[in-house]
Amino acid sequence: MTSIIEQAHRLYDAVPTEIPVPDGSLFDVLSDAAAHYPDRVAIDYFGAATTYAEILEQAERGAQVLLDAGVRRGDVVAVALPNCPQAFTVFYACQRIGAVAAEHNPLAPAAEIRGQLERHHARIAVVWEKCAGAFPLDGSTELAQVLTVDISAGMPRSQRALLRLPVERARRTREQLRAPSPAGTASWDRAVLRARAVAPSTPQASGDDVAVILHTGGTNGVPKSVPLTHRNIGANVNQCVFWVWKLHEGAEVFYSLLPYFHAFGLTFCLCSAVRKAATQIVLPKFDADMALDAHRRRPVTFFVGVPPMFERILRRARQTHTDLTSIRVGVAGAMPLSTELADQWEQATDGMIVEGYGMSETSPVLCGAPLSARRRHGVLGVPFPSTQLRLAALDDPSRDVEDGEPGEILVKGPQVFDGYLDMPEETARVFTDDGWFRTGDIGVNRDGYITMADRAKELILSGGFNVYPSQVENAIRSMPGIKDVAVVGLPVGDEREEVAAAVVLEDAARPVTLSEVREWAEKSIAHYALPRQLAVIAELPHNQIGKVMRRTVKEQLANRTSQLFEQASRSVAGAVDQASDVVRRILPGDGDADRDDHPDASQQ
């Protein structure tokens, strides 16, 4: 039998089967780009342009700020920022001195952030002003200093001046961008302006050192922290760059709309774009109109995102008669891309769109569809260069399944992490004795292309985020009047799922509404994980040992009529555009639709 890898390599065309694995610091990616393209615009932020030479200087100043704060090689710095120039410079400031950037979702609940801080023990944090309250200096964590960021500081002067106008619209926008910093914090922006560049003799990290810590539920929903080394991310950067071989160094414009704090955005936008010395269109939230405004100003050539982003951009481009033909290549990930949307995108751009597959633990990309006439849509793709992939029997990970049969996706490669932070039992659970990482996803091989057959456990893929039913159930079960609850994912077309909750009420409890359940649960879980459908039922099905049978619940809810769900409440929650499920809204506007989440991607 021909192996999956042999079949995949036949589909590579211009892509090498092996890629160089870097041994140095990720900071070399930025310093090399600045050395060869110093005057090239690195970041376009609302029209304000920053060159590679300028961004390198800012990163080196930021590195000195961290050194002055007591950060040394191997220390962890908590980072919680939307996409903005400072998020770029903080990341590379950490890489310059060998510090570890622990990336946090700036709109995650405070309880979630606290758990992450307790795992990685950061003493310094650099955070958006509006989320600084989730990073306390009261001794309840190990944080000793919090530096706050004004994300409006990088905007053009004219726009900053408009924010100061004494009119209602300016006030609302200002409140969306800024907030008073808590007592005891200091300004990162002012500190960088005052700092000198770090001394050239300051040592950097090696490939074996941890560069980044990401946060995930992994394959079973247990909150975990994922350390990725400079080599892990550097290798995946090279894999991505070689895979998307049609890009030209120093000549591309990237849409950087995926959040830097998510594995997908971090590797593709924060690192791979810099590796190609590309210009990045950076926005702190996903907004199709703002994205198209930027595209008309500086035509985009490459777009990596999640399917709802492509869908929203395409729809608004049609409505506004915006030409998209400069976008030669698109890469979609984190959730399935429908064949219909792929065809529509390629017709509108006269370019190509391919899909990728991966997860935080793999830096994140493992597979991609070939960027050629051999591409297929609706697949995870073929294994990346320097990546080994097997489909193992579900009852025996040492045995491979035949082509066409479902098996668990097992991988090895330079982009695969070594294990979870201080969780040896979880690490042992996801690695086989001979070192294969068990993704927990079930795939099928057809001619070298891997397709998704099922997801391990009962993970819900909602808008590109992994939603773990047990976490949502725990949040809802704590609500007064709720006796029991089961959470499942229900299909809503185009291979998407919505979070649905079936609740059993206490005997004397009054009826509950979907909006009430969402309001209660949002105190402890992320917005993207909130249920969008609610059914009140008499009892939940249990197996012989008393465990709720979620699969049975899912079947029952899928078969019930629409009257079981609160359509009125769904007008509040369910009418939110799917794109907002994938990208956490950093700048909320009027209405519930603007309160949705700016990723996580999490991961597939």
From TrEMBL:
InterPro entries referenced in this protein's UniProt entry, alphabetically:
AMP-bd_C, AMP-bd_C_sf, AMP-dep_synth/lig_dom, ANL_N_sf, ATP-dep_AMP-bd_enzyme
Q: In what residue span(s) does the AMP-binding enzyme C-terminal domain sit?
A: 471-547
The residue ranges of the AMP-dependent synthetase/ligase domain are: 32-421
- Record's Gene3D superfamilies? 3.30.300.30, N-terminal domain of ligase-like
Q: What is a single Pfam family found in this protein's UniProt entry?
A: AMP-binding_C
Protein name listed in UniProt:
AMP-binding protein
**Source organism per UniProt:** Schaalia naturae
